[in-house]
Design goal:
The chain is α+β, with helices and mostly antiparallel strands and 61 residues long. It has one domain (3-59): Ribosomal Protein L30, Chain: A (2-Layer Sandwich), CATH 3.30.1390.20. It has two helices and three strands; from the N terminus they run βαβαβ. The termini are close together.
Length: 61
């Protein structure tokens, strides 16, 4: 199964609470922090809401 490398690029200051919660739920802890997660519909849905704050790359597992 494919994996996604997600990197937080923008800070969360002055962002709505629901966007902060989504970024935290993805496991990101600050700017330039990256996580690798399984590609599934739940993660894709979360990413659509915060796409302006993160960079997403597909990684071969």
């Amino acid at each position: 199964m494919a994996k996604l490398k997600i990197t937080q690029r923008r800070g969360l200051i002055k962002k709505p609470q629901h966007q902060r919660r989504i970024v935290k739920a993805l496991g990101l802890r600050g700017r330039h922090h990256s996580v690798t997660l399984e590609d599934n519909p739940q993660i894709r849905g979360m990413l659509q809401r915060v796409l302006h704050l993160v960079d997403v790359e597909e990684v071969d597992a």
